[in-house]
C-alpha cells in the first residue's frame, strides 16, 4: 500500500470535482462522458499523472452515471449507453417515483462500477488474453445477439423488427469509413446529398433528435398541456426507496455488471451494446419479466449496473493491450502519452504504482459518485417540476450544444438533430418503434464491419458457425434470445385474446 | 446593430488585450483561432501535435486557440468555407497521399488549399511481424515472395499506412519483377484491428508504430501477442533526433537497427525509400498572405525560443519547423516521389 | 468447396451489407403493408387523416410554430455565428430570442409573473451555457 502515501488531498478533491463535472455533463442531454473527458484533458497538462488520472477517471465515472438522470426524468438518454434506462426509468418517474428510480439506478451503478474495478484489478491480463480470442466473427455474433433484443423489446413484433432494420439501414448511409477498414466509398444516397451526408448521421444527434426534439414536437402537437409536469411531483403516497428493492436481484446485478465489464473490454463493440445486452438477458432469464418496460426496478438495475460496469471493462484492454475499449478511454491514451507513459501489454508491470493508483481512483470515484448523487437526487428530481414552457426551450438549446459539440463543431449534426426530431414525431404517428430503431442504428455500423470483414477474411459463410467454441456458445444465446421473444409474443397474444373474450 | 453586438461581445468575452511579443493592434487576425485536424481522435498523434503547437501559439498570439478533431472530410469542408484566417487546419501526409490513392474526399491539397508551415515529424511508423514469424527482416520477406509464398500485410488503405506497403511492393518489383503480386494487402482499420488480424493469423505483417507496439515487442516469444519490428520507415536522421532513451525500453540505438541503411527498401534501385510522417498547417486558398507571413513569423519565434522542441521530444515527436514556402516545396517533391512509386506498382 | 463460399471484392465491399439490409427492409415493408394496409384504409375511410394519425386535438400553431422556430434558430445561429468566427456568439445571441419566443408560445397564461420568468430564463440560461462551455471548457459553439 505504498502508493497511498503518494496521494495528496488534491487527489481526492480532483476526483470529487471530476465526478461532479462528469455528472453535470452526463445529465445534460447531448453531453457525454467522452466530451467531459475531452474538454478537461487540457486541465491535466498542469497536473502530474496521478492527479491527472484522478480527475479524468472521476469525469468518466460521473459522466456515465449522469446519463441516467435525463433518461429517467425526461426520457432522453443523456448518453447512448443509458438508453435502456429510459424503458423502465421514465414510466416510474411518470408515476411519481422519479426519486426512487434514480436511487435504484445509483445503487446499481455503484455496484457495477465497483464490480468492474475489482475485475479490472484482479484479472486484467487474463481477461485481455481472453478478449483477443474474439475475432471479427465472434464480435459480429455479439452484435447480432444484441440485435436480437429488438424482437423482445418491440411492442409489435413485425413493426419492431421493421424499425430495427430501418435503424440499421439509416446507420449505413454515408461513407464505408476507411478508418474502420472500409473502402471509403459512399452508398445509399443520391449525388446531391453527398456534400452533406458524406460522413453519415452521427449517433448522438440522432439520439437526441428522436428523444429530445421528437418528444417536444409530440407535446407541441397536443398543445403543451400544463398539468403533466406537476403530476410527477406528488411523491407522497408513492413507494419510497429502500434497499429491499434489491432483494433477489443479486443475480441480475452480477450478470449485468459482468456483461458490462465484458462488452467494455471488447474494443470496437461499443459501450451501448452493453446495456442493451444486459437488459435483454435480464428479460430472458429472470423469473418474472412481465413488468419490464412498464416501470420495473429490475430493468433499471440491469441497465445501470452494466453501463457502469463498462468503466472498468473499457480500461482492461487500455491498460493491458494499449488499446482503448471505448471512445472515452481512447482519450485517456492521450493523457498517458502527454505524461510520457506508454500503455501496452507491459504497462501494469512497468508502472505498478500508477496501476494501483488508477484502480484506487476508480473505486473512490464510484463511491464519491454515489455520495454526490444520493444527496443531490432530491433536488435533481425536481427538474420535472419545472414548467414546460421553460424546460422545453432549454432542452432544445442544450440538445443543440450537444449535437454541435459531439464531433467538435459540425453544423450538419445540428440539422441531423432537426431531421430526426421531425422523423421521431412522424415515426410516433405511423407506429415505427423508436427503441428498436435506435438500437439498430447504434449497432448497424459495427455489424456491417464485422460481418463483411469476417467474410472477406475467411471467404465462407459457414465460418460463423464453425469458427470457435465461443461462436457456438454465442449461437446458443442467440437462439435462446429469439425463441424467448417468440414465446413472449405468443403469450402476450393469448393474454390479449382471453381478455377480449371476457 | 452589429456594432452593439460587437461591443457587448467584447465586454462579455472579457478579452482584455495584454501586451506580449506579437499581439499588436495591427495583428491580422483577432478573436479566436480554431484549428481543425484531419483526425477524429483526441488520443492520436495529430491531436497531440496540434495541441502542443496550439498552446504555444495561444501564448504567442495572445488568442484562444482551440483544436477540434473533426476528421479529414469535415476539416477540409470547414476550411473551404472560412478564408478569414480564424480557421486553420493541421494534418499530415495523408492529405496528399489520400489524393494519390484516390480516396474519396481528397482533392489535390496543393491546388485546392494553401499548404503552410511544417511543425513536426512522428518518427514511429513501423512494420511488425509476430515474434515467432519465419521472417526476421524485410530481406526474408523478399525472398519468400520471390519463392512464390504469399505474404499478407495488414494496413489501413489509402494513406500513411499504405505508403510503406507500396514501397515494399515497389522494391520487390525492382528486385524480383513479377513477385510483387505475392505481397498482398489486408485492409483493416484501427491499430487494434491490425493487431487482432495478426493474433488471428490473418496477417503475416502489420503496420503499426513504435509508440503503440513497442511493448508488444518486449513480450516473451511464447506469448501469442509478441511481435518484433522489421522496419521503421523514417529516415535514419530523423530517428537520430529522438531522445537517447528511445521509446519504452527500446533505445534509440536499437531503433536505428530497423531504419535504412540497416533495412533496405529500395525506391529506384539506388536510393532507399524513406517516409517521415510530417505534420503541417493547411490554409484556405484565399487566406491573406499577410496572415501566412504572420503565422510563419510566430512559429519561427516559438521554435527560436526552444521550449517547444523539449515538449515535442518528450512525446516522441521530432521538431521540424519549416516556413510555408520551404515546407510547401518539400512536401510537393515528396508527393511527386511517392506518386511515381504508386504509379509504377499500379501498372 | 461449398455453396457457402464467397469473395467480396474490396472496391465493392461498401455495397455488400447495405444491399442485404435494403432487401430485408423492403421485404419487411411489404409484410407490414400486407398486414396493415386493410385496417389502415378502413380507418382512413371512416375518419380521414385526423382519425388515422390521431390528430383530434392538433394544435397547428404550437406544432408548426415549434418547427419554424427551431429551423430559424438553427439557420440564424449559423449566420450570426459566421459574423464572429469561432466565438460562439451565434449560439449566445440567437438562443436568447429563441428561448423567449418558444417560452411565450408554450406558456398558457401570459401574466407579468410568467413573462418575467421567461425573460430572465431566456437571458440567463444561454449566457450561463455559453460562459461555462465556450469560455471555461473551450467547446466550439456556432
From TrEMBL, chain A:
Domain DUF112: residue ranges: 13-439
Annotated TM spans: 54-74, 101-124, 196-218, 354-377, 389-406, 412-427, 434-452, 472-490
Cofactor(s) essential for the protein: FMN
GO MF annotation list: electron transfer activity; FMN binding
Coiled-coil annotated residue ranges, if any: none
Membrane recorded as keyword: yes
This protein's UniProt keywords: Membrane, Transmembrane, Transmembrane helix
Entry annotated with the keyword Zinc: no
Protein's recorded name: Putative tricarboxylic transport membrane protein
Automatic annotation (TrEMBL), chain B:
Signal peptide range: 1-23
Domain of life: Bacteria
Entry keyword set: Receptor, Signal
InterPro entries registered for this protein in UniProt: Bug_dom1
Cited Gene3D superfamilies: Bordetella uptake gene, domain 1, Periplasmic binding protein-like II
Keyword Nuclease: no
Name of the protein described by the UniProt record: Tripartite-type tricarboxylate transporter, receptor component TctC
Source organism of this protein record: Aidingimonas halophila
TrEMBL record, chain C:
Keywords: Membrane, Transmembrane, Transmembrane helix
Residues annotated as domain DUF1468: 16-142
Tree of life domain: Bacteria
Transmembrane segments: 20-37, 58-76, 88-107, 119-137
InterPro entries, A to Z: DUF1468
Signal sequence coordinates: none
Keyword Transmembrane helix belongs to the record: yes
Name the record gives this protein: Tripartite tricarboxylate transporter TctB family protein
Amino acid at each position: 500500500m505504498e502508493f497511498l502515501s503518494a496521494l495528496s488531498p488534491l487527489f481526492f478533491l480532483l476526483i470529487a470535482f471530476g465526478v461532479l463535472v462528469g455528472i453535470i455533463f452526463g445529465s445534460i442531454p447531448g453531453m457525454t462522458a467522452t466530451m467531459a473527458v475531452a474538454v478537461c484533458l487540457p486541465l491535466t497538462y498542469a497536473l502530474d499523472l496521478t492527479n491527472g488520472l484522478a480527475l479524468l477517471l472521476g469525469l468518466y465515472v460521473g459522466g456515465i452515471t449522469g446519463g441516467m438522470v435525463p433518461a429517467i426524468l425526461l426520457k432522453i438518454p443523456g448518453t447512448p449507453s443509458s438508453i435502456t434506462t429510459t424503458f423502465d426509468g421514465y414510466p416510474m418517474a411518470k408515476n411519481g417515483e422519479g426519486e426512487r428510480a434514480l436511487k435504484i439506478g445509483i445503487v446499481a451503478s455503484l455496484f457495477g462500477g465497483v464490480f468492474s474495478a475489482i475485475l479490472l484489478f484482479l484479472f486484467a491480463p487474463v481477461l485481455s488474453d481472453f478478449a483477443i480470442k474474439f475475432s471479427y466473427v465472434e464480435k459480429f455474433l455479439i452484435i447480432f445477439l444484441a440485435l436480437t433484443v429488438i424482437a423482445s423489446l418491440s411492442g409489435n413484433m413485425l413493426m419492431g423488427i421493421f424499425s430495427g432494420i430501418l435503424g440499421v439501414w439509416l446507420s449505413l448511409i454515408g461513407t464505408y469509413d476507411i478508418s474502420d477498414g472500409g473502402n471509403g466509398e459512399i452508398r445509399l444516397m443520391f449525388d446531391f446529398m453527398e456534400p452533406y451526408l458524406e460522413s453519415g448521421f452521427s449517433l448522438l444527434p440522432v439520439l437526441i433528435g428522436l428523444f429530445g426534439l421528437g418528444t417536444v414536437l409530440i407535446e407541441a402537437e397536443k398543445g403543451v398541456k400544463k398539468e403533466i409536469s406537476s403530476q410527477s411531483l406528488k411523491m407522497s403516497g408513492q413507494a419510497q426507496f429502500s434497499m429491499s428493492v434489491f432483494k433477489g436481484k443479486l443475480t441480475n446485478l452480477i450478470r449485468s455488471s459482468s456483461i458490462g465489464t465484458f462488452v467494455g473490454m471488447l474494443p470496437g463493440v461499443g459501450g451501448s451494446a452493453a446495456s442493451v445486452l444486459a437488459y435483454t438477458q435480464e428479460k430472458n432469464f429472470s423469473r418474472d419479466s412481465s413488468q419490464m418496460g412498464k416501470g420495473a426496478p429490475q430493468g433499471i438495475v440491469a441497465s445501470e449496473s452494466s453501463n457502469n460496469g463498462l468503466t472498468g471493462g473499457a480500461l482492461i484492454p487500455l491498460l493491458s493491450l494499449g488499446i482503448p475499449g471505448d471512445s472515452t478511454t481512447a482519450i485517456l491514451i492521450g493523457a498517458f502519452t502527454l505524461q510520457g507513459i506508454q500503455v501496452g501489454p507491459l504497462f501494469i508491470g512497468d508502472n505498478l504504482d500508477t496501476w494501483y493508483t488508477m484502480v484506487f481512483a476508480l473505486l473512490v470515484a464510484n463511491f464519491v459518485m454515489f455520495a454526490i448523487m444520493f444527496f443531490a437526487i432530491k433536488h435533481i428530481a425536481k427538474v420535472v417540476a419545472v414548467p414546460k414552457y421553460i424546460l422545453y426551450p432549454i432542452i432544445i438549446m442544450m440538445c443543440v450544444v450537444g449535437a454541435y459539440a459531439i464531433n467538435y463543431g459540425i453544423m450538419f449534426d445540428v440539422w441531423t438533430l432537426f431531421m430526426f426530431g421531425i422523423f421521431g414525431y412522424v415515426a410516433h404517428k405511423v407506429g415505427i418503434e423508436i427503441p428498436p430503431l435506435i438500437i439498430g442504428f447504434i449497432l448497424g455500423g459495427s455489424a456491417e464491419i464485422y460481418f463483411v470483414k469476417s467474410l472477406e477474411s475467411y471467404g465462407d459463410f459457414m465460418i460463423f458457425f464453425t469458427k470457435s467454441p465461443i461462436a457456438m456458445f454465442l449461437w446458443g444465446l442467440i437462439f435462446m434470445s429469439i425463441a424467448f421473444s417468440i414465446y413472449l409474443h405468443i403469450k402476450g397474444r393469448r393474454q390479449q385474446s382471453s381478455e377480449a373474450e371476457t | 446593430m452589429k456594432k452593439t453586438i460587437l461591443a457587448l461581445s467584447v465586454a462579455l468575452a472579457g478579452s482584455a488585450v495584454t501586451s506580449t511579443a506579437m499581439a499588436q493592434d495591427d495583428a491580422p487576425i483577432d478573436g479566436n483561432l480554431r484549428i481543425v485536424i484531419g483526425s477524429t481522435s483526441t488520443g492520436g498523434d495529430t491531436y497531440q501535435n496540434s495541441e502542443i503547437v496550439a498552446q504555444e501559439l495561444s501564448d504567442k498570439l495572445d488568442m484562444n486557440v482551440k483544436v477540434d478533431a473533426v476528421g479529414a472530410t469535415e476539416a477540409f469542408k470547414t476550411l473551404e468555407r472560412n478564408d478569414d484566417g480564424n480557421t486553420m487546419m493541421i494534418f499530415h501526409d495523408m492529405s496528399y497521399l489520400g489524393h494519390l490513392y484516390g480516396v474519396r474526399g481528397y482533392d489535390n491539397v496543393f491546388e485546392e488549399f494553401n499548404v503552410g508551415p511544417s511543425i513536426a515529424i512522428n518518427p514511429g511508423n513501423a512494420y511488425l511481424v509476430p515474434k515467432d514469424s519465419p521472417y526476421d527482416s524485410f530481406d526474408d520477406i523478399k525472398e519468400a515472395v520471390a519463392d512464390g509464398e504469399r505474404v499478407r500485410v495488414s494496413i489501413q488503405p489509402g494513406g500513411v499506412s499504405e505508403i510503406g506497403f507500396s514501397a515494399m511492393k515497389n522494391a520487390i518489383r525492382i528486385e524480383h519483377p513479377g513477385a510483387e503480386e505475392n505481397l498482398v494487402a489486408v485492409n483493416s482499420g484501427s491499430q487494434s484491428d491490425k493487431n487482432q488480424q495478426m493474433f488471428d493469423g490473418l496477417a503475416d505483417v502489420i503496420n503499426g508504430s513504435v509508440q503503440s507496439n513497442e511493448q508488444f515487442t518486449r513480450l516473451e516469444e511464447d506469448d501469442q501477442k509478441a511481435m518484433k519490428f522489421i522496419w521503421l520507415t523514417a529516415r535514419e536522421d530523423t530517428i537520430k533526433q529522438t531522445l537517447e532513451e528511445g521509446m519504452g525500453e527500446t533505445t534509440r540505438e536499437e531503433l536505428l537497427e530497423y531504419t535504412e541503411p540497416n533495412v533496405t527498401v529500395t525506391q529506384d534501385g539506388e536510393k532507399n525509400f524513406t517516409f517521415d510522417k510530417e505534420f503541417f498547417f493547411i490554409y484556405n486558398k484565399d487566406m491573406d498572405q499577410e496572415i501566412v507571413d504572420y503565422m510563419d513569423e510566430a512559429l519561427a519565434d516559438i521554435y527560436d525560443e526552444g521550449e517547444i522542441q523539449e515538449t515535442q521530444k518528450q512525446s516522441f515527436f521530432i521538431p521540424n519547423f519549416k516556413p510555408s514556402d520551404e515546407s510547401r516545396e518539400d512536401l510537393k517533391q515528396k508527393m511527386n516521389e511517392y506518386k511515381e512509386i504508386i504509379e509504377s506498382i499500379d501498372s | 468447396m461449398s455453396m457457402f463460399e464467397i469473395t467480396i471484392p474490396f472496391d465493392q465491399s461498401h455495397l455488400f451489407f447495405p444491399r442485404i439490409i435494403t432487401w430485408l427492409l423492403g421485404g419487411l415493408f411489404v409484410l407490414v403493408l400486407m398486414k396493415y394496409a386493410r385496417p389502415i384504409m378502413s380507418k382512413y375511410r371512416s375518419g380521414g387523416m385526423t382519425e388515422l394519425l390521431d390528430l383530434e386535438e392538433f394544435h397547428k400553431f404550437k406544432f408548426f410554430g415549434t418547427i419554424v422556430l427551431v429551423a430559424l434558430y438553427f439557420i440564424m445561429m449559423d449566420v450570426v455565428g459566421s459574423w464572429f468566427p469561432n466565438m460562439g456568439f451565434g449560439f449566445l445571441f440567437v438562443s436568447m430570442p429563441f428561448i423567449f419566443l418558444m417560452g411565450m408560445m408554450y406558456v398558457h397564461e401570459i401574466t407579468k409573473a410568467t413573462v418575467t420568468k421567461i425573460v430572465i430564463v431566456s437571458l440567463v440560461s444561454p449566457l450561463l451555457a455559453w460562459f461555462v462551455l465556450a469560455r471555461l471548457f473551450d467547446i466550439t459553439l456556432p
